[in-house]
Design brief:
alpha/beta; Rossmann fold; six-stranded parallel sheet; four-stranded mixed sheet; 10 strands; globular
């Protein structure tokens, strides 16, 4: 059992039986579910829109090499510069080299899951660079030295009382401070950071091939300020963020908003095509896009699982997953949690150490039902499970148990051998080891259904 698997088992158990934690999550997710139910009403045929998106994303995925070259050509034509990074170490090295050459000491950064994947903040701070998260939720995560809990809402696990207590501890605000008061305080603090920062770092919700632009989607406007005030803008994106045309955004942006936050459209949607041009009055004088692989091509090698590359990071599969609702985001021990995380993280981080995530699912299929990109997530989890078994990552005990069960369950004579007491003893020593201390293992009755049926029908023995 890997260290990641051991930590997951321990943390999941602790969170699942933390009633306070579960109450906070249940409340916050219930607000999302109400918003989502209202937001989806803007569609006359939501399923048709989801299928259209699936086709668009499938095409881009299958022709990713072509679209990446097209994106680079258009972006560099307007003065932008591309940095290719095969993994996290290469991305960090290139970014730090950029900042060192310009002797940068202050950075503002908007919300970005790819920067969490690279652990960018840690590396910048080790370099002596002050980096400030500008999304309110990410700012709270940063000052508490925490990790984002959710793809879209990083502090879903916190109540307003938790946040007020944190700001009292860190900044001396009232312990009774309202969300509005906390927001106004952070807004004033960030204004100074924006105007003084030398570099702004953002992610990219999408990379638009036909215009060489990046699309940013947000509700606070902090990404726009992070890229427009400083003299240099660095956008970091996974190579899976490509879309073919700017025309595709009329489909993608509303779907992302509806499934991400329940809105008809997100408050701020921006397309950036490079550094400031001669005829423009403001904006960065330099702009770089760091294109990161970091395991994505490993995922693309798999015929079935490559569909997960179509994900637009809306987080809806997390919000409807019964497992995520109980154990929360931190228990997964990965940047991407929930069903989508359980599909992609084993390929990003190593199947041998993280294959257990694909088994942490009830396979109810709710994630597939709500995915705007029509990704068959519950089936991909099964594919990962099958792959991990083929690779030999299950334990000898698991392999023997499944082999024995298969033999017994496929032959009536073997199923009828022995009495109920012996069978219950055997199950307690095999399946019972994994059943958990808080669940009661079902007991085999003295008479099987087969025997009862024969008796009822008066079949000859």
């Amino acid at each position: 059992m890997s260290a990641a698997q051991q930590n997951f088992a321990k943390d999941a158990l602790a969170k699942a039986f933390d009633l306070s934690h579960r109450a906070t999550i249940a409340h916050n997710i219930s607000l999302y579910e109400k918003a989502y139910a209202k937001g989806r009403l803007q569609y006359k045929n939501l399923d048709a829109a989801r299928k259209r998106l699936a086709v668009l994303r499938h095409k881009t995925t299958n022709e990713l090499d072509k679209f990446l070259v097209e994106f680079e050509a258009h972006f560099t034509a307007r003065g932008g510069k591309i940095i290719w990074a095969s993994d996290a170490n290469e991305a960090i090295t290139e970014i730090l080299n950029l900042l060192r050459k310009r002797q940068v000491r202050t950075v503002v950064k908007s919300k970005s899951m790819i920067t969490e994947e690279l652990e960018l903040n840690k590396h910048l701070e080790q370099e002596g660079i002050e980096v400030t998260e500008t999304d309110l939720g990410e700012f709270i995560v940063q000052i508490e030295n925490d990790k984002p809990y959710h793809i879209i809402t990083p502090i879903m696990h916190k109540s307003k009382e938790d946040v007020a207590a944190l700001f009292k501890e860190k900044y001396g605000l009232s312990g009774e401070a309202s969300p509005q008061e906390v927001t106004h305080f952070v807004r004033r603090l960030l204004r100074e950071k924006f105007t003084n920062a030398e570099v702004g770092i953002t992610g990219a919700n999408f990379l638009i091939a036909d215009i060489g632009g990046i699309a940013l989607t947000e509700n606070e406007g902090n990404a726009v300020m992070s890229m427009s005030f400083p003299r240099m803008h660095i956008a970091i994106a996974g190579i899976d963020k490509l879309i073919g045309s700017i025309k595709d955004l009329d489909l993608i942006w509303p779907l992302l908003a509806t499934h991400g936050t329940g809105q008809k459209i997100t408050a701020y949607n921006t397309v950036i095509t490079g550094p400031r041009q001669e005829y423009e009055k403001d904006g960065p004088s330099e702009m770089f896009v760091v294109l990161v692989d970091n395991g994505r091509t490993k995922l693309l090698k798999h015929k079935e699982q490559r569909r997960a590359v179509s994900c637009i990071r809306c987080g809806s599969c997390l919000n409807f997953c019964p497992v995520y609702k109980n154990i929360g985001g931190h228990a997964y021990g990965t940047v991407y949690s929930g069903p989508i995380g359980a599909v992609i993280s084993p390929h990003f981080l190593g199947l041998q150490s993280y294959h257990h995530l694909s088994f942490a699912s009830s396979l109810c299929g709710r994630c597939t039902e709500v995915c705007p990109a029509h990704i068959n997530l519950h089936e991909l989890l099964l594919r990962n499970r099958m792959l991990s078994v083929k690779k030999g990552y299950s334990s000898p005990f698991e392999r023997f148990t499944m082999y024995a069960l298969k033999k017994v369950m496929t032959k009536r004579k073997l199923m009828d051998m022995g009495n109920a007491g012996l069978k219950n003893f055997a199950l307690s020593k095999t399946i019972g080891r994994f059943w958990g201390p808080r669940r009661k293992l079902p007991r085999i009755q003295k008479k099987s259904f087969n025997k009862l049926w024969k008796e009822m029908r008066n079949f000859p023995k």
